[in-house]
Amino acid sequence: MQILLVEDDASLAYGLQQALTREGMIINHVTNGKDALHVVETFPPDIVLLDLGLPDIDGTNVIKSIRSSKNLIPILILTARNSVEDTVFGLDCGADDYLAKPFEIPELLARIRVLERRISTTIESNEIVIEPVSLNTKNMQVKVNAQETIFSKSEYMLLKALMQNAGRVQTRDKLESQLYNWGEEVSSNTLEVHIHHLRKKISSDFIKTIRGVGYTINK
Ligand code: CA
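A: This is the predicted complex of the input protein with calcium ion.
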């Protein structure tokens, strides 16, 4: 599962990243509201963990902004403002749940599981199928010709981005920022290397190169 962690407290963010990564989650950490909105729009995670006291945009405005574009992505507020008013306001803005700081990791994991169950009951299918690939966004399992196939984290993220946007061209910049956002060092040929591996594991013509622009998968 992909989690976007929006938290400007460096030590808290570090601790959360370690704990959630140990649970097999992929964590993208940003420290302000502007970056959070960018990631939600370009490469949506499965769940957003959102601090309310951010250095630029107030967390409640981040929630309003996400919901104003009809995006129903699950949002869990992590807040030091444990007053009833702030919590109620955050929920009224469209957050799904909240956790007051300080909290224990097992409680956070339990809340994430609740949101995860909600996703799987509200979204009819977690599977994106474009023959010969079927990609399950819930358990991050990928099958090629019905055979389970192992992809690295970066390969999975790129494949998911391309399949979710099938029929539309994904620019190099957008795909590279995807890799960078999710914690990979990106050098000049990183993207080509991953695309090469994807083609090898799927088929040479599954991902089309749009010369000078980027890549696409046909629907
Ligand atoms: Ca803060």
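Residues 8-9, 51, 53-54 surround calcium ion (CB under 6 Å). The radius of gyration is 18 Å.
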